[in-house]
């Protein structure tokens, strides 16, 4: 059956753990997988800059014996001529077996999944989601801590625009005994819709604080993020908060001896260079884990898609949406700039949110 990875929760807990377990097997027996994707092609469609994610996907497919095509800059593709995401992926499916897409517009990979007819992997869409980074983080947590449950995790820095934070919180919220501590300035707090989701989750507890020092002794994992200049509409606001939270050796004196420090990278100045040699610093091990988990994901999605025929008609929706009944107000959403169907999901609470970016509907749809 054709499956995509657009959001971390597209995979069940069992499927997520199976992919992590496959990644661990690949690490232990790399030679057994060297021709697992021989004759298959991955298309990397990267509409905004990326180093780690794009090269990680490329390396993953090459290590599986496959080939890689695509582009690393939207300016070098037909998007510079005005081509839509839908048309791009309908062309790409003629050349590739699977797509990894990064896009500056929230929801673009979801649009791609409705038209591609081959598996689509969200490699990051705006400030919305980054599910393969989540799988990377989960593999790292498993290898460093040996479990996914009963952990206290501090997320520090840019929690408003940090898609890696949003995705990892969603994934961990499905495990028992997770305590989340949100460490950020007021300007970069986690979005309200996520705070509401966390409040409704009986398995998860959370609280917000303003300094990492006050909670450092509690943490099993500290997840640092950079303050992303490109996500700010106001440069003065960025300048005001960019140096708010910096991890250095002095702050680590209060941390547990086995605390793990994670970071999706790139960093700017939020982790001092002196921390790199601390054995608790796992962020470069985290990068390597990303290659292995993407190998496992590519293998899994291609296996699920084997024998699948391309779509006869498009778009194809993977769940019952409200179609063209409401309009998204988020200007970062793909629905604001391309000719796509306006899609909304109605939650259990009766509130409707845009399927592409999770923005709340401008009117009541109970």
Polypeptide structure, described:
The chain has 366 residues and is α/β, with parallel strands linked by helices. The protein has 3 domains: 8-130 and 288-305, Rossmann fold; 131-285, 3-Layer(aba) Sandwich (Rossmann fold), CATH 3.40.50; 319-366, SH3 type barrels, CATH 2.30.30. 31% of the residues lie in helices and 16% in strands. Helix 2 (52-63) packs across helix 10. It is globular. The mean pLDDT is 91.
The major pleated sheet works out as:
5 strands, parallel
Shape: globular
User: How many strand units?
Assistant: 12
CATH topology of the largest domain: Rossmann fold
Question: What is the averaged pLDDT score?
Answer: 91
Low-confidence stretches: none
Spatial strand sequence of the major β-sheet: 7-6-5-8-9
Order of helices and strands: HEHEHEHEHEHEHEEHHEHEEE
The CATH C-level class name of the largest domain: Alpha Beta
The portion of residues forming beta strands comes to: 15-25%
**Tally of domains:** 3
CATH superfamily of the largest domain: Aspartate/ornithine carbamoyltransferase
Gyration radius, to the nearest Å?
20 Å
The rounded distance between the terminal residues' Cα atoms is: 33 Å
